[in-house]
Amino acid sequence: MKLFSSVKDVNNLQQFVDDALALKQNPFAYQSLGKNKTLGLVFLNPSLRTRLSTQKAALNLGMNVMIMNMDKEGWALETEDGVVMNGSTVEHIREAAAVMGEYCDILGLRSFPKLHSREEDYSEGLFNKFVKFCGVPVVSLESATLHPLQSFTDLITIQETWKTSSLSGRVGEGLPKVVLAWAPHVKALPQAVPNSFAEWMSRAQKEGMLDFTIAHPEGYELAEQFTDGAKINHNLEEALQGADYVYVKNWSSYKEYGKVLTYPDGWMLNNEKLSPTNSAKVMHCLPVRRDLELAAEVLDGPNSLVIQEAGNRVWAAQTVLKEMLKNS
Amino acid sequence: MKLFSSVKDVNNLQQFVDDALALKQNPFAYQSLGKNKTLGLVFLNPSLRTRLSTQKAALNLGMNVMIMNMDKEGWALETEDGVVMNGSTVEHIREAAAVMGEYCDILGLRSFPKLHSREEDYSEGLFNKFVKFCGVPVVSLESATLHPLQSFTDLITIQETWKTSSLSGRVGEGLPKVVLAWAPHVKALPQAVPNSFAEWMSRAQKEGMLDFTIAHPEGYELAEQFTDGAKINHNLEEALQGADYVYVKNWSSYKEYGKVLTYPDGWMLNNEKLSPTNSAKVMHCLPVRRDLELAAEVLDGPNSLVIQEAGNRVWAAQTVLKEMLKNS
Amino acid sequence: MKLFSSVKDVNNLQQFVDDALALKQNPFAYQSLGKNKTLGLVFLNPSLRTRLSTQKAALNLGMNVMIMNMDKEGWALETEDGVVMNGSTVEHIREAAAVMGEYCDILGLRSFPKLHSREEDYSEGLFNKFVKFCGVPVVSLESATLHPLQSFTDLITIQETWKTSSLSGRVGEGLPKVVLAWAPHVKALPQAVPNSFAEWMSRAQKEGMLDFTIAHPEGYELAEQFTDGAKINHNLEEALQGADYVYVKNWSSYKEYGKVLTYPDGWMLNNEKLSPTNSAKVMHCLPVRRDLELAAEVLDGPNSLVIQEAGNRVWAAQTVLKEMLKNS
């Protein structure tokens, strides 16, 4: 594995999930693999879970970790080609990426969208240039449009808590019903987490691992390239019927790009709204705004998986790093 | 040991001090104890000595260390319950603490008081919630009201430089006279260091290890819960008579909470003021403002212990971490 | 080796270069040397290459690394003696340096010049006080006037890419012609990199390893203490005749201290300007502003050594740390 930025980078989805759960049982089994190898984590935006869980995953594998907070410790990066650099950017991503590739065996990059131009964000220009010029394997720590370590974690967590030991190969039997449910927020958030969740769950649905529905108010349609095969519902109550997993997440509009649109009342999940579900487990990538995105009573109740889910970020990252180390 | 936030968390004070001095002689003796264990250091406020000495202590024990500068790399934390989080805080301490507990075997937390409300600061709400929700052992790296790693260090340093190999069990013989002496400053500083020093020295006095006096101008009384048994003196010259150790520190008023009050001249320690002492050793937790809190001539002279004291922070932290690792 | 701040700290220049290239072949050969040793990296200014390459070098040697971003995580340092510290500085460098020396076996310090006063910057007051008070070996990570890890790297890179296996001992044969060429910039930059490059190349020239020329517009003369024996040319075209290596770098005026002076057109190196050279290799310390300091066509073309050069920073740092560890 030379790149992990999308579910498309994974060959065998069930095997990938099984590998992660095996690492959780035996975290230090592959320490010789990482000996004298260095992971560089490059942050153009803040991070808590991704930073700590990926660092922990690398340490479990015996790797060294070097962290670079580009926004705080470094320089403003130029990403356009053909520009005379007489403004505020002090280094081009061509050199910055290549140099970091000289010092690290694997690199991770976090870079949020600006939410100004859909074309710019969805081209993934910065991320793709970083991959192109650094010359070493790259793990996305969340890009403008996708957050694959989060979505891989989410699938691991669904497998871990589902009643059968393998989601795959159960055709004809009951599949878990997974609902991605839009939630309110006061700020305009990226679409990276829901895009990515939709991409991974659509793939899992295609492979017969689960049943996938997206619920959101009108105007909050996600980019179709990520939602192939998903059932879309503008009625939250209807969508939640019989759900086994509800994945709560706010995102800003893709159509009216980066905007916070008006929406009908009743989109914040609480215990009452959970009643028509199949005692659904509730997931969220965190950070979560209590009683705005998701009722505190749900977060503090028995249905919440959010902490277990966050903990599983380690095994997602460790599975990816292990695959990259095996190739190197 | 599951918590280190106060002298009350220590069973046998003399043994704890002796353990620290033994680690100083043999820093790498317990490296197998920390193998594959991770210490997370969470800073809500800046730190130099605490950061480096605790990191060094963990490395000496073979641990991995992950550092999280929440104020710079992370998010503003909500600490109140029942709040609709539609303002500037982006994550509740319930989730933040629990998530960090998923990634770390032991956590350290630094969080200063706001000095706005005595009730709020002295409730230690943030620190206690962090302890409650993270689910792993916690070391205080300085809280709103106490700085136990510093005070433990101070007792270690007194033992190390005193003429008898054990402070305890010398009843009837001369005990070291220790004086905590208030000093001027231009800013309103927390009471955490003097509270903590008073708490540790009062306990040590009760156990017959030393004799403890506090000198400060009127209005600068510390909270009584920490000063039990201490002699209080508003006359610095009188308090210093025959002192063996003078611990210099500024703090803001506890009574007129967080205020800098007017005070009589003559509270900055210099060589002249040291003359009635028993050639007292001078201590300070650092950072120190030269010729404002403490005369440069004292800092640069033979009585100063401040650098040795700062160095001993490693052995205090290492003793605490070793106890926590033994339990895990 | 107790100090690395100038080429004067190196006894045998050719041997030092050969050691670095041997480490590049065998990066992990000296891991027992660094076991349980700690390198502290102290940044008063931002850093990308120096931070990562020095950290990597230390990890290769089996050392632990602790990083302190003083400007962001710490305190404003006082460097003057005899000052009443009642202003904005919160700790004196005497205590800060001494304390860091308690926790680290070797320290690295980065501190840029302020470019206000030539006397202040060229006295290297802050750097020298840090060395004096910390009590452990110190590596310069770039000081007010010199950047020796960069210049050592540059000599390593020239040796690595030159046609003979040793630059020394070839008297009578063709020596590489090395040209330091001033380049335009929009900001006032320090003279540390060109001073240091001149210092190292002048020494190498004296030892018969190469031929050294400096090209710059009038008014951009470097301090003579660093340029002993160098040919100075105000005509770029003339200076580049037959060059084997062109080292491109902007710097502000030393004479009109810290000023950006007007200069004639034609000082940005491009492919056309390279034609009278001996297919010269082009070097730059990075970060570089494309099409302002140096043409993008050169950076992206076959003559550029900039990425290889940045990669070699590891071996320069590792050679220095290895020498310091051998002594300790």
TrEMBL record, chains A, B, C:
The protein's assembly and partners: Homotrimer.
Keywords recorded for this protein, A-Z: Amino-acid biosynthesis, Arginine biosynthesis, Transferase
Binding site for N(2)-succinyl-L-ornithine: 142, 185, 249, 289
Family annotation (InterPro entries): ArgF'-like, Asp/Orn_carbamoyltranf_P-bd, Asp/Orn_carbamoylTrfase, Asp/Orn_carbamoylTrfase_sf, Asp_carbamoyltransf_Asp/Orn-bd
Family membership noted in the UniProt record: Belongs to the aspartate/ornithine carbamoyltransferase superfamily. SOTCase family.
A matching Pfam family: OTCace
Residues engaged in binding carbamoyl phosphate: 47-50, 75, 110, 147-150, 285-286, 313
Pathway: Amino-acid biosynthesis; L-arginine biosynthesis
Presence of keyword Amino-acid biosynthesis: yes
Sequence ranges assigned to domain Aspartate/ornithine carbamoyltransferase carbamoyl-P binding in this UniProt record: 6-160
Enzyme class: transferase
One function term, GO molecular function aspect: ornithine carbamoyltransferase activity
Catalytic activity entry: N(2)-succinyl-L-ornithine + carbamoyl phosphate = N(2)-succinyl-L-citrulline + phosphate + H(+)
Stated name of the protein: N-succinylornithine carbamoyltransferase
GO BP, sorted A to Z: citrulline biosynthetic process; L-arginine biosynthetic process via ornithine
Task of the protein: Catalyzes the transfer of the carbamoyl group from carbamoyl phosphate to the delta-amino group of N(2)-succinyl-L-ornithine to produce N(2)-succinyl-L-citrulline. Is essential for arginine biosynthesis.
Span of the signal peptide: none
Its EC number(s): 2.1.3.11
